[in-house]
Amino acid sequence: MPSRRRTLLKVIILGDSGVGKTSLMNQYVNKKFSNQYKATIGADFLTKEVQFEDRLFTLQIWDTAGQERFQSLGVAFYRGADCCVLVYDVNSMKSFDNLNNWREEFLIQASPSDPENFPFVVLGNKVDVDGGNSRVVSEKKARAWCALKGNIPYFETSAKEGINVEEAFECIAKNALKSGEEEEIYLPDTIDVATNNQPRSSGCDC
After folding, report:
1. Which positions ≥6 away from 97 have C-beta within 8 Å?
2. Which of 43, 79, 124, 164 could be disulfide-bonded to 64 (CB atoms 3.0-4.6 Å)?
3. Rounded distance between C-alpha atoms, residue 195 and residue 173, angstroms
4. Rounded Cα–Cα distance for residues 165 and 162 (Å)
5. CB within 8 A of 169, min separation 6: which ones?
6. Angle CA 205–65–192, to nearest 5
7. What span, in angstroms and rounded, lies between the C-alpha atoms of 198 and 134?
8. Segment 5-31, tens digit of pLDDT
9. Which ranges in the chain belong to alpha helices (H)?
10. Which residue, 98, 142, 141, 105, is CA-closest to 12?
11. Which residues form a coiled coil (predicted)?
């Protein structure tokens, strides 16, 4: 069988602990949501194949721990990223205020060749909570922050309800593609792209 042309796109999800990073990833890849909260230890990743314009891409989505004690692991996981997703909880002002720290930390650790134009996408998660009555960060405030940082694409999501998750990751994939186009790899269909390009993290059930 002839080889198909694939591109591996590495996406990193960052944000405070508990904002829903793991839930967003699981909703997108597995169409599942769990009410049981379990903090990510270190980092984990899932992969999903997506197709644009008759080309096949493997999205490798890295879910990193939000706790500060794991942030020293950042360098290894951030390097080679094609897009960074910043997630906050619309019901937590602190998680929104910390977006800047996560963005700056990523740029320092990942050292992208063109930091000014590196693609970020911001997700305001948990819009479903309490029917929106617990919300403390307005969409206007979030969009204003994104505009100041170079017009970062912004989506309001609910990992629980699946609101805007598919649309957000479609945007993430397209932005990753713009940044990672030059890293095309040619592999037979039988090869697992993810395991041949990154080491598995412990406890990964991909």
Report:
1. none
2. 43
3. 19
4. 6
5. 28, 59
6. 30
7. 39
8. 568 899 999 999 899 998 999 999 988
9. 21-30, 74-78, 93-97, 99-110, 139-148, 165-180
10. 105
11. none
Task: Provide the residue type at 196 as one letter.
Answer: N
pTM: 0.79
Label residues 45-58 b or e (16+ Cβ within 10 Å = b): bbbbebeeeeeebb
Residues near 141 by beta carbon (within 8 Å), at least 6 away in sequence = 96
Of all helices (H) and strands (E), which one includes residue 30? Answer: helix 21-30
> Domain ranges in the chain?
4-191
User: Tens of pLDDT along 51-89?
Assistant: 877 788 898 998 876 555 445 555 677 888 999 999 999
Alpha carbon 165 to chain centroid distance?
11
Q: Report the topology of domain 4-191.
A: Rossmann fold (3.40.50)
Cβ atoms of 15 and 99 within 8 Å: the answer is yes
